[in-house]
Design goal:
Layout: H1 6-15, H2 23-35, H3 38-54, E1 55-57, E2 64-66, E3 79-86, H4 89-98, E4 103-107, H5 125-134, E5 139-142, H6 148-161, E6 167-170, H7 186-194, E7 197-198
Parallel strand pairs: 3-4, 3-5, 5-6
Antiparallel strand pairs: 1-2, 6-7
Helix pairs in contact: 1-2, 4-7
């Protein structure tokens, strides 16, 4: 039996589906939202709807974009001959936030993880290979996380890219094993990219 009014209970259930949000936190969020002025609540709801309706993936790098290609792919100031391969868009944002990398990106949207039923065909690997074959790429930096899945994905990419004659490098291990790029500070990310090694 629900403890709260049905509309409030439904909101708590929906908020509980967010990563890292349990029922207690979802309840706290729901009561906060309940106290918001009507206009702020509508603005939040509209932002969520706009997110789902307006956001897509860049057809080049698979970063998050609004209305076509992402701003990084369309920036003529970027070095389009260097691609940094990351697992997720938030990894790209972490590297961008450090403010030193001037190349472009390729977002895989995950890692190879047989235990989770995710193989190479579930990632944007084929599109990466097409980019490297057709765009005059001189270097690919593999910046997957230093986890078991990230390392397996890096090795798989190395095996596919090496025969294409492009320079391959891997970010240095300034990021601790088992850590996520998303949570690394800018200086650590800078050292990792600057200390990358050819593979």
């Amino acid at each position: 039996m629900p403890r709260y009014a049905p509309a409030l209970e439904r909101l708590i259930e929906e908020l509980s589906k967010l990563p890292g949000v349990g029922r207690k936190t979802a309840t706290r969020f729901a009561f906060h939202l309940l106290r918001l002025p009507q206009e702020e609540a509508r603005s939040l709801a509209k932002a969520i709807i706009d997110l789902r309706e307006k956001i897509s993936l860049c057809p080049i790098c698979f970063n998050i974009a609004e209305g076509g290609r992402c701003p990084i792919c369309t920036d003529p100031q970027r070095d389009h001959s260097i691609i940094c391969v990351v697992e997720e868009p938030h990894d790209l944002l972490a590297i961008e936030g450090a403010g030193f990398y001037e190349g472009v990106y390729h977002v895989l949207h995950g890692t190879i993880s047989p235990l989770e039923g995710r193989g190479p065909k579930d990632l944007r690997i084929d599109e990466l290979l097409e980019r490297v074959k057709g765009e005059g790429i001189r270097e690919v930096i593999i910046a997957t996380n230093p986890t078991v899945e990230g390392e397996a994905t890096a090795l798989y990419l190395q095996r596919l890219l090496k025969p294409l004659g492009v320079k391959l490098s891997r970010i240095a291990q300034g990021i601790p094993a088992g850590g996520d790029i998303e949570y690394a500070d800018g200086k650590t990310l800078q050292r990792s990219l600057e200390g990358r090694r050819e593979i």
